[in-house]
Design brief:
Layout lengths: L1 E7 L2 E6 L10 E9 L2 H7 L10 E2 L3 E9 L11 E4 L9 H4 L23 E4 L5 E3 L14 H13 L7 E5 L3 H12 L3 E5 L3 H9 L4 E3 L6 H8 L5 E6 L4 H10 E9 L20 E4 L5 H12 L7 E4 L4 H10 L5 E4 L4
Parallel strand pairs: 9-10, 9-12, 10-11, 12-13, 13-14, 15-16
Antiparallel strand pairs: 1-2, 1-4, 3-5, 3-7, 3-16, 5-6, 6-8
Length: 339
């Protein structure tokens, strides 16, 4: 089968490897699409070291059940599925409570085990498959990370937050576009922040009440006026650079929450300071749970989410990463092996 394997920083190769053999408890998936994630760009650039190489990257997978092991029940060949990629040990405390993605990052699909930039993918257990009905498995594949991570980020940011508060979304890329939608579905006023005029236009179409470019105005004053001087109830940073984190902390109001999703290498100084609003809080997000993925898929099946997707072939994968570096991708590129 054809695949994209990572060997070392700057060395991602399109090559042929044997189709995986499956055991009695395993399932083989024919990949219809695999979302191209910014975290994979960090890996290719050497910013996120992996436990072993070479390895097939890719962790946002949708496809069809190709073959099932002899002991697998409840899965039929030809079934449309999305793949949950936050694989854990299954027995520790976080796994038992249903947060398997928190167990061990090095067990994640496309991080510690071969992923979905391939024609076929081996799955160790049926519990990692979520059936889909109305959705196309290729174009809906970004729900498995971009949608899931954004959903968890908004849930964390908005838990118990009064609907009178404002949510600021920084970074309107593949994840931020979902963030805008989830915050609006919860009933909040949403401020979108990005340096791209086109992505701000997309944010407005997705429901953002205000779309701001930090290079075109004084964001702090504009957001203060928009919130009647209260500041934001929550800020979700899908970028994570020094600049975006500095802005994020400045936008917070009393008891405001900063949720960091982006892995841009930035640092934020959050400490007791009389100049800061009282009782601000900060947390991070590591992907999402299987239960949350099922909730995301349910929303998409109901037609409540817009997915902005560009299908690409193996020949266009490296170019897609170059475009990602430049910020030229409007939504999510999806590698479709059949193209």
């Amino acid at each position: 089968m054809k695949c994209a394997r990572f060997y070392a920083p700057g060395d991602l190769r399109i090559e042929d490897v044997p189709i995986p053999e499956i055991g009695a408890e395993e399932i083989l998936i024919k990949v219809a699409g695999c979302g191209v994630c910014h975290s994979d760009l960090h890996i290719i650039q050497g910013e996120l070291p992996l436990p072993r190489t070479p390895i097939i990257l890719g962790h946002e997978v949708g496809g069809y059940v190709e073959k099932v092991g002899k002991n697998v029940e409840g899965v039929t060949e030809g079934e449309k599925v999305l793949v949950y990629g936050g694989w854990g040990c299954g027995t520790c405390n976080v796994c038992i409570r249903g947060e398997e993605q928190l167990c061990n990052v090095l067990g994640w699909l496309g991080i510690g085990v071969d992923g979905g930039y391939a024609e076929y993918l081996k799955i160790p257990s049926r519990r990692y498959l979520v059936p889909i009905k109305k959705l196309d498995p290729a174009t809906s594949s970004p729900l498995a990370d971009a949608g899931l991570t954004a959903y968890r980020a908004v849930r964390k940011a908005c838990e118990g937050l009064p609907l009178s508060e404002t949510v600021v979304i920084i970074g309107i890329g593949g994840l931020g576009q979902f963030g805008v939608q989830f915050a609006k579905l919860r009933g909040y006023r949403v401020v979108a922040v990005d340096v791209s005029k086109r992505k701000l236009e997309i944010a407005k179409k997705l429901g953002a009440d205000l779309a701001l470019n930090p290079v075109e105005g004084e964001l702090l004053n504009i957001i203060s006026e928009f919130t009647d001087g209260k500041g934001a109830g929550a800020v979700i940073d899908f970028v994570g650079t020094n600049e975006t984190l500095r802005d994020a902390t400045s936008f917070l109001g009393k008891c405001g929450r900063l949720v960091l999703v982006g892995i841009g290498g930035g640092q934020a100084s959050i400490f007791w300071n009389p100049a800061l609003p009282p009782e601000v809080s900060y947390t991070t997000v590591y992907w999402g749970s299987l239960t949350e993925l099922r909730e995301v898929i349910a929303l998409a099946e109901e037609g409540k989410l817009s997915l902005i997707v560009e299908r690409i072939s193996f020949d266009g994968l490296l170019q897609a990463f170059e475009r990602m570096k430049k910020g030229d991708l409007e939504g999510r590129a999806v590698l479709c092996p059949d193209l």
